[in-house]
Amino acid sequence: MAITAKDLLRLYATLAERRALPYDEALIATCFDYGIFLAHTGANLPQWLAKAPQWARAAVVVGRSSALRAIKEDRRLTLAAE
């Protein structure tokens, strides 16, 4: 997964201040991946996400939560193996 600064700007431009944006199935995967990216970089949810559509916020949150859970489990398994 490689999210570039250009990808982040495009996502921001698409979602920020757009609470009424219709559901976009293709964008759900991008939002989910963005959540994973946030987890792996240790970043919090961006403030602008609060003004994004509910379906987009949910996808980012679920992606981030899933990744954080996987990271935690991986660390637990690594410590148990030592």
What average pLDDT do the residues reach? Answer: 88
Could you say how many structural domains there are in total?
A: 1
Strand content: under 5%
Largest sheet: none
Q: Distance between the terminal alpha carbons, to the nearest Å?
A: 29 Å
In sequence order, what are the helices and strands, one letter per element? HHH
User: Helix/strand-derived class?
Assistant: mainly alpha
Helix content percent band = 55-70%
Radius of gyration: 14 Å
Number of helices: 3
In short:
This protein has helices at residues 5-15, 25-41, 54-81. By secondary structure, the protein is an all-alpha fold. The protein has one domain (5-81).
Descriptive notes:
This protein has 82 residues and is mostly helical. It has one domain. The chain is built from three helices and no strands. The chain has helices spanning 5-15, 25-41, 54-81. α2 packs across α3 (54-81). The longest helix has 28 residues, at 54-81. The radius of gyration is 14 Å and the shape is elongated.
Write the layout of secondary structure elements.
Layout lengths: L4 H11 L9 H17 L12 H28 L1
Helix pairs in contact: 2-3
Give the key terms.
single chain; 82 residues; mainly alpha; 3 helices; elongated
